[in-house]
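Dear colleague,

Thank you for sharing your sequence with our group. We've completed the structure prediction you requested, and as agreed, I am returning the results in plain text so they can be pasted directly into your records. Please verify that the sequence below matches your submission; if there's any discrepancy, let me know and we will rerun it promptly.
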Amino acid sequence: METQRASISLGRWSLWLLLLGLVLPSASAQGLSYREAVLRAVDQLNDGSTEANLYRLLELDPPPKDVEDQGARTPASFTVKETVCPKTSQQPPEQCDFKENGLVKQCVGTVSLDRSDDQSDINCNELQSVRAKRPRPPKPRRPHRPRPRPLPWFPPRFPGKR
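Please find the predicted structure tokens below.
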């Protein structure tokens, strides 16, 4: 009879632990930080890019202040820059140096802070680069020449009349 009570007690504890495990999220199921979600979006950008080199996060704009739901899509804004690492290398972009005069892109969209949702909706546009053509200086203007003034009109003088 004693073993039967121990068995029932053990069964209750197992049930409680199971329910507790379902209610509390595990450490691996916790959401991503804003930075981690953006880095994941940069990886997706590199995967879908047709360009030769990888891009790396250059600047991360601050996250919105009203992010409450870890599963919701979060607005994101960041800047990436071209690195020296070719896309064919299996090197993480964080280990690559930025390419001198590399392309810089401003990216905006949404990222998910949910670890299980790896989709992001990001659009990137190339910023004006340093290597772009410099505008030509304006052509020098010709100096202003005033128009000649007409001579004042005086009535003709006839000899003998005053």
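Summary note from our side: The CA atoms of residues 18 and 153 lie 113 Å apart.

Kind regards,
the structure core
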